[in-house]
Every structure is written in structure tokens, then in C-alpha cells.
Amino acid sequence: MSKPLHITDDLLISYLLNEISDEEARQVTAWRALNPANEQQFERFSLIWESSKNFYADTSIDAGASLAKVKQRAAEAKQRQAVVVPLRNKYSWLKIAAAVLFIGGCAWVWLNRFANPVVKFETEAAVKIDTLSDGSVVTLNKFARLDHPEKFNGSRRLVNLVKGEAFFNVAHNKARPFIITAGAATIKVVGTSFNVKKRNNQVEVIVETGIVQVADGSGSLITVLKAGEMALYNPDTKKVIKLPTPDKLYTYYRSRQLVFKNIPLPRLVAVLNEAYGSDIVIGRKELNNMQMAGVLNTGENLQIILDVIQTALNIKAEKKGETIILK
Fold first, then answer.
1. How does pLDDT run across 203-238, given as a tens digit for each residue?
2. Distances (CA, A) of 186 to 144, 159, 211
3. 310 is in which domain, residue-wise?
4. How far apart, in whole angstroms, are the C-alpha atoms of residue 6 and residue 83?
5. Which of 115, 137, 170 is where one domain is finished?
């Protein structure tokens, strides 16, 4: 029977890199299963390790000093009698690089999670506006969430649209691009205004001013959009549809108005369902060809909106349960 292994940070780095022997891996697994405290320690270590992969070179981490610390730890570990199963090949260049990255990543996690906490900007039944630390203004639609640092550090301004829809009016700063992650898509700008919607695993980007780059999760550029253009990105198929912005209905949650000209009824119904959380359906296929023009105030009660549509198109709206059927 092999002697129990003394678990060190260095060994856990090797474990996460899959650079240990089968016996070492079995003992680490056994150590994790030994008691809940060990598993919690491993999960914390793994979390920091995963976060360190996002560590950027523009933080003020001194790589030389970090490497010196690694070497010092390695020397101390060598003197400890408790280590029974030695690490193979001591420190390969990959392990040194991983250890430096890990130390830098720990510092990055601390700086960003504690010294510079993440702000969860979230809405429920009301639209909200927030000004970020760089002066960029974000309008968040109902039932949406944007995570952003309390203060932007480094050479990039990073935010995460966790769910829902937001309009960004980004403060111009050519030296520090503004980057939004939205599911599997990444949107990069310098100073521009645009709308991003993340819904049903798809991402929609509409540009009002400036130029926007849309990339997939790996950072590969998908398309470049300019004012008056939009893109629909499906991460499952990794395909993007780029087309001219068909109307201004997407602005309803900022302007509180629906301004439209010759809008097909199905498009108007889709926006009303989104704005009011309603379930309006078209009951006759002939209505799909109908178009409307006008201005509707989304601050009004939905019934008033329906009355206007019924009068303008000479149709009826019938309610069955929670569903409203246009006939």
C-alpha cells in the first residue's frame, strides 16, 4: 500500500494541468473525498485557478517577483519531511508558467473581487439607467442584469450582460476599448451607441452610432457593424445574420414610444408582447399582411393600445384566459 500523499498547492497545480502520475491523481481524489473540508479547499483553489486564466498582462503584477516566490516555495517544499511522493521533473517550464499565472491570477481575483468589487446592475419591472465609472451610460430594460466593476482598471473596460437587454452609450476612449460579453458573443467598441439583447441563447446587436465588432467566445471576429446595421448571432450554429436595421421599435423601452411606418402587424405584436409581457397572437393568417403607421405610447395601458389597433385595422381583439387573439 502506498503511503499517504502530502497535498500541496504545487501538486494541485500539476493535478489541474493533468501532469501527475496515476497514483498521485488517485491520492488527490482520495484526499478530496476524505472530508468535506478538503473538497471545499479544492473547490476554492480550482475557482481561483480558473479565474487566473482570465488574468491580463495589463495588471500591475510583477512576473519576476511572482517567479521568485514560486522558486522560494519550491525550495521550502523540498525541505519538508512530510512530502512522501515527490513531484516528477520538479518544475517543468509549463509548471513554472502555470504557477506564475496562478499567483498573478490570485492577485487579479483579489483586486477585482475585493479591492474592486463587481456591481450587479439589475432590473425587475422597471427600466433603469446607470452611469459607469468611465462615464458610459447604460439603459437596462426590464428583467435584465449587467455585471460591471465598480471602477474600470487596466487597458480594457469589461462588462457582462448576464441576461436581457441594454442600450450602451459608450464614452469614447481609443486607448481602452469597451468590451461586453453576452453569452457566447463578445462585443467590442471604442466609443459608440448600440443595443444588445441576450435572449433564448441568441444575441442581437443593433448599432445606432459608430462601429461595433462582434466576436464569438473564442475571440474570433464574426462581423463588423456600422450605424444602421444589426446582427443576430446563434452560438449553437455559430452563424450570424447581418442586415440593415428594419425599424426603430427596439427603442421603445428608452423612448417609451413605438414610432413606426408601414410596420407589419406580426412585428408590432412581437414588440408589444415584449414590452407588456403579454400573449397576443394573430388569429387569422390574412392579418399577417396588414401594416400600420403611427405612434403608440408604451406608458399607456395595453387595452388602450389594443383599442387603437382595432380601430386602425378594423379588426377585433378577443381575450381567452391570458391570451389575446387578434381576429
1. 999 999 999 999 886 767 788 999 999 999 988 887
2. 17, 10, 14
3. 249-326
4. 5
5. 115
